[in-house]
Amino acid sequence: MMNSPGVAIEARGLTVVRGNRTVLRDLDFTVEPGRITGLLGPSGCGKSTLMRAVVGTQAKVTGTLDVLGSPAGHPTLRPRIGYVTQAPSVYTDLTVRQNLDYFAAILQPGRRHRGARRAAIARAIAEVDLTSHADALAGTLSGGQLTRVSLAVALLGTPELLVLDEPTVGLDPVLRRDLWNLFHALAADRGTTLLVSSHVMDEAERCHRLLLMREGEILADDTPEALRTAAHVATVEEAFLHLVDVAATRQETVR
Ligand SMILES: Nc1ncnc2c1ncn2[C@@H]1O[C@H](COP(=O)(O)OP(=O)(O)OP(=O)(O)O)[C@@H](O)[C@H]1O
C-alpha cells in the first residue's frame, strides 16, 4: 500500500507485540503532512512503541504502516526522518558543536561539504537556542539542554518528518513555549510533518491534530477544537477523560 495523497503516515490494522504482550492493538490512523500531530496518552499506553514502529526500529509489527509513501523502515526513508528518543542520544565527552560535527559528517561526508556542514550546524544550534553553549561539553549540560542537542542533531538533515518522543519533558515553561514555536515554524515554513508525543494534556492545545491513546488503542483522532466541542467541555484533558468513560461504559455493556 502507498500513502494516499495528502497523507504522511497511514496505519491500517497496526499491531505490535512486545515480550508476550500486545502493546498496540489493530490501530487505524493517518497523519497529515506539514502539520503537528500530537500523540497523547498516559504513561505506558504505547506512544513510544508507536513512534518506534513509524521510524522502523520496532520488532514484531504487523498490519500496514506506510510513511512518506514507503513501508515503515524502508532504507530510503532514513535521511527523510528525524527521530528524537526520550533518552538523549549525544556523546557527553564532546561539546555541543562537536556532537553536531560528528553527525553532520555522517550525513554529508567529504571536505567539499565543509562549508555547508558548518552552516547547517550553526543553524541547528541556533534553532534550539544553544548558541551560547555551543562549546560546552555535553556532559555538563542540564537534561533539558541535552534534549535540545538531540533535537538539533535531528534537525541537521532538514528531515521531512520529525518524530519527537516527549521533547519537552523537564523543560521550563519558557523553553517549552520556544520549542513549540519552533515546531510551528518548521511546519509552516518548511512543510515539515511533526509527530510529537506528550503525556501533558495542556500541550495538546498546541497541536493541529491529536491522536489520543489509552492502553494500546486510539480513542480519538481529531483536532483539539473538534474533541472539545464533541464532548461539550473546555479542555482536551476533559475531553480525554470523557472518552475514557465512554470506552469503559462500552466495555461494561459488551461484558
Ligand atoms: N521491551 C519490552 N518488553 C515488553 N513490554 C514492553 C517493553 N517495552 C515496553 N513494554 C510495554 O509496552 C507498553 C507501552 O510502552 P511505551 O514505552 O510504548 O509507552 P509510552 O506510552 O511511551 O510510555 P511513557 O509515556 O511512560 O514513555 C508498556 O506497557 C510497557 O510496559
Question: What would you say this structure looks like, in words?
Answer:
By secondary structure, the protein is α/β, with parallel strands linked by helices. Helix content is 36%, strand content 24%. The chain is built from seven helices and ten strands. The strands form two sheets. Strands 6-7-8-3-9-10 form a six-stranded mixed sheet, with helices on both faces. It has a four-stranded antiparallel sheet with strand order 2-1-4-5, with helices on one face. Helix 2 packs across helix 3, helix 3 (114-127) packs across helix 4 and helix 6 packs across helix 7. The radius of gyration is 19 Å and the shape is globular. The two termini are 36 Å apart. The model has no long low-confidence stretch (mean pLDDT 92). Bound molecules: adenosine-5'-triphosphate. Adenosine-5'-triphosphate binds next to strand 2 and helix 1.
Put the structure in a nutshell.
It is built from 7 helices and 10 strands. The protein is an alpha/beta fold and 255 residues long. It has a 6-stranded mixed β-sheet with strand order 6-7-8-3-9-10, with helices on both faces. A 4-stranded antiparallel β-sheet has the order 2-1-4-5, covered by helices on one side.
Q: Topology, pairings included?
A:
Elements: E1 9-18, E2 21-31, E3 36-40, H1 47-55, E4 61-67, E5 70-71, E6 81-84, H2 96-107, H3 114-127, H4 143-155, E7 161-164, H5 173-190, E8 193-198, E9 209-214, E10 217-222, H6 224-231, H7 236-254
Parallel strand pairs: 3-8, 3-9, 6-7, 7-8
Antiparallel strand pairs: 1-2, 1-4, 4-5, 9-10
Helix pairs in contact: 2-3, 3-4, 6-7
This protein binds adenosine-5'-triphosphate.
